[in-house]
Amino acid sequence: MQTKTAHFLIVLSLCLLPLLTVSAQELPSKNDARRVPARDTTLIQTATEGFARLDSITPTVVAIEDTTRTIQDSIKQKPETLTDKVVYKATDYQRISQRKKKIYLYNEAEIVYEDMKINAGEIILDYETNTVFARGIKDSAGNYSQIPFFVQGPNQVKPDSIKFNFDTQRALIYGSRVEKAGGQQINLKAERSKRVNDSVIFMSNVKISTSEDLDNPEYYFLARKVKFVPGKKLVAGLTNMYIADVPTPIGLPFAFFPMEKETSVSGFILPGPGESRERGYSLTNGGYYFALSEYFNLELTGDYYTNGSYAFRADTDYKVRYKYNGRFSFSSERILFSERGLPDFSETNTYNIRWNHSQDTKSSPNSRFSASVNLGSSNFYRQSLNQANTGNFLNNNFSSSVSYSRTFPGTVPVNLTVAATHSQNSRTEEITMSLPTTQLNVDRIYPFAGKSGSKKGLIKNLNLSYALRADNRFRTNDDEFFTAAMFEGAETGIRHSIPIATNFKLFNYISASVSGSLEESWVFKTIDQNFDEETNTVVRDTVNGFDAYRTYRGGLSLGTTVYGTFNFKETSKIQTIRHVVRPSLSWSYTPAFDQFYETYTRPDPNDVTDPQNVEVEYSRFDGGFFGAPSNRVSNSLSFSLANTLEAKVRSKDSTDTEPKKIKLINNLNIRTSYNFAADDLKLSPISVNGSVPIIQEKLDINFSANLDLYALNSANQRINTLNINNGGSLFRLTSGQASFGYSFSSRDFDKDAKAGVNTDRTENETFAGGGRPDDLLGKGVDITGNTNAGNREPEDEEEKEIEFYRFKIPWNLRFGYQVGYANNARQNDVSSHSIVISGDIKLGNRWTVGGSTGYDLANPGITFTSLNFARDLESWNMRFSWVPPVNSDPSRTSWNFFIGITGNLLSDIKYDKRRTPDQQL
Fold first, then answer.
1. What pLDDT is attached to residue 276?
2. Residue 26: CB partners within 8 Å, gap ≥ 6?
3. What share of the chain is helix, strand, coil (3-state, %, to 5)?
4. Which of 105, 255, 285, 511 sits CB 3.0–4.6 Å from 123 for a disulfide?
């Protein structure tokens, strides 16, 4: 029995041994948390449990897994839910709890799965339910830091905490922050968010603002319920506005915010209410914006006043990368003053068209199309309902040009240009238009050049070319612009030119050139003149039909360059002074073309008592497109002398090996001529012009003067007597002018700063409208108070972080001075004398004050003056511009106040109040 008992116990132990081994595998130890080193770890899903660590598997674990897999082969496997690797890491520790099926990550934790990424202070991954929970941690100072940062595809969220399910792709988010939502300028902060899928998020108690500080925004819109579709739209329920956490009565029952990233969204543009003393209450700048495609858009806006005045505007921007870009604007206004039936009632219709187009030179090397158009009513900038741009209405001349040019390459390249031009004077309302102008130029041909291509010498360097210019010109005014009367007065002319020239050296130091030209002019209208004795008048009849005349001329010129150098001692600060003189002597001859002149007789109008018949000479081409050829011989000798004086100065920087060049006189030019064929007054006045640098590369004084050697008689007319022989000086100063402009700023004293002028007509509204690009006459301001630069200029990071006691006051100053003198008839007058100043100063980090003014010294008085005040309220912009009643033209007195949210999406949240110029005055 004892033997059987012993055998029985041995057999029973052997049978229970596999079961005890399996139990030992499944039962966890007391300490089920396994400490692991802080390093990157990759998880994969297996058939038995959620995840297994690839980089820390031991041989024992492998053996156990193989056994388990053998046992569970007959059991139905759980389908895999994760389709990709989950990569995680943390700085302090990573802990795996097999009992709770969780992984704990602490400090700078990160989880990456497919296109989803979460960074947080603490992350808990439940690999049984396939969920992840992330939140921030407290630092040593007790501050909540390392808040979660959730990224999935293009969407980014910064919540206080987040719970995300890998299976359903849903998330529960608390205190979520969405910066630059949908690529726009608005930021969101929601108390609680529920992410349904990758395209829909439901939120509650959401703060909507453009403020960068979402925890303490200057303002926000509080929406109770929000549906957010990232990259598409945001739809909100009851919404009202808070300023500094104080609720305001401004609210909406619902709100819609477009969130498209790549393309803009079509939508209504809310008008701004206003009031005008002359035109009553108004709604301005309201309309609709059409996002037609990624290449161009269309904005239709208008104004309406209760007295019946209205305005309509259409603006479009277009751009095709690497090809072309441009902007087109059209404005039409109907302006009523006073009331119908009253004696001071008036009605004015104005319009303006602006178009700027530029082409990338790389898109088509052999052809180019460009446009710069600014035309319309002459009084548009002075009377426009929605225009207060000082730089434009102070300019009296507008011009336009649309051109297409093409080069035909070959042995002899040919250039073709077709253009339409326009010039307009806003005071005289005269308009000159060429529609079209065609120019054809054939490149130079060297018929006697050698086969080697050498062009040295008188004969081998002989060249000729061909040029054709055809014009169709109209002269009209505002009333007849683009009417039948304008086209009836069209003038057409075609001119062919063949210039011939050669150049060579004389005595190795003198450059000589011989030139000549043949021209043939075609016209289609001529003039026939005769004297009508019955009416005692000259009758001019226009003869329609083709006619032509041919002219020719020739010339010879000689020139050289003379250098004069004076060296100083080696110890002197000034090392060398160099004087460069470029004398030039040229002779030109043009014969008289008498064959194109005719005569008629008439009584002498200067002899009233007993008039005798006199012969009057005229040309049928007088007053024609190109005018009449001269019937007098021109045989003149011209002389010019160009001077440049510069010095080489030892540099203050001891590391510089080369001396610094300084210009003392820049282009001092002296010109005059002597006409051998003239009967008297053969010597022309001496012209002197040049510039003297005062501050190198910053300030040059430009001057010009005319000196006459001939004297005046008692009637202040030039006589054939030298002024010195008439008891006067050698020369008479008949006219003179001096001017300079200086622009400097605080950036000039900062070596790392750079400043420039925007000359892009598609961005600089003042320059596109015909004004100056440098804001010397003041910045362009529209009726809403916005400047050309946009809503707000971007700040440098250095400016944001600068301390108060280190704050530098940025400033800009532009200064212009001009004086003119006239004495051609002994008047001895200062014809013009004025000073213009403009600038701005940044009083604080967000305060800017600027303005422009001037003073007329010739006719004492203050010229146009404007003042601007701006306050950057971070998320808001406030501006006030004022034209005080100190100008010579008091009708321009006006002011406007504007405050609005920065950013295009909420730009309709604004308030503006203005007083427009008094149209009656």
1. 74
2. none
3. 10, 55, 35
4. 105
pTM: 0.66
Backbone angles phi and psi of 351, in degrees to 5: -155, 160
From the number of C-beta atoms within 10 Å of its C-beta (0-12, 13-18, 19+), residue 249 rates as exposed
580 located within any domain: no
CB atoms within 10 A of CB 919: 19
What does the angle CA 409 – CA 411 – CA 417 come to, to the nearest 5 degrees?
Answer: 35
SS3 assignment, position 519: strand
Domain extent at residue 891: 699-915
Distance in angstroms (rounded) separating the CA atoms of residues 545 and 142? 97
Residue keyed to tokens 């802080």: 38
Beta partners for 116? Answer: 113, 152
How far apart are alpha carbons 65 and 73 in whole angstroms? 12
In Å, how far are 376, 378, 381, 884 from 395, measured between CA atoms? 14, 11, 9, 20
Residue 9 binned pLDDT confidence (cut-offs 50, 70, 90): very low
User: In the prediction, which pLDDT does 803 show?
Assistant: 43
Q: How far apart (Å, rounded) are the C-alpha atoms in residues 771 and 621?
A: 38
Residues 6+ apart with CB under 8 A from 379: 348, 350, 426
Q: Strands, E, within 591-731: which ranges?
A: 597-603, 613-619, 634-649, 660-675, 686-695, 699-708, 710-712, 718-722
Quickly list DSSP for 398-455. EEEEEEEEEEE-SSS-EEEEEEEEEEEETTT-EEEEEEEEEEEEEEEE-TT--TT---
End-to-end Cα spacing for the chain = 137
Of 262, 290, 312, the position where a domain reaches its end is 262
User: 83 pLDDT band (50/70/90 cuts)?
Assistant: low
Total count of residues recorded for the chain: 921
C-alpha–C-alpha distance, residues 74 and 19, integer Å:
18
Least reliable range by pLDDT among 307-311, 757-761, 783-787: 783-787
C-alpha–C-alpha distance, residues 338 and 278, integer Å: 7
Contact 702, 740 (CB under 8 A): yes
Closest to 328 measured CA to CA, from 352, 356, 369, 364: 356
Which residue has better confidence, 719 or 1?
719
Q: How far is CA 734 from the centre of its chain?
A: 43
Residue 124 inside a domain? The answer is yes
Does the pLDDT value for residue 471 go beyond 80?
yes
Task: Assess whether 199 and 98 both reside in one domain.
Answer: no
Q: Specify the number of domains making up the chain.
A: 3
Instruction: Specify burial of residue 134 (Cβ count, 10 A radius: 0-12, 13-18, 19+).
Output: buried
The 3-state DSSP class for residue 474 equals: strand
Joined together, the tokens standing for residue 370 give 């460009």
Q: Which of 75-89, 117-131, 781-795, 860-874 is the least confident region?
A: 781-795
Q: Are residues 900 and 801 in the same domain?
A: yes
Q: Is the pLDDT reported for residue 423 higher than 80?
A: yes
For residue 41, give every residue at least 6 positions away whose Cβ sits within 8 Å of its Cβ, in sequence order, or none.
Answer: 53, 54, 55, 56, 87, 88, 89, 94
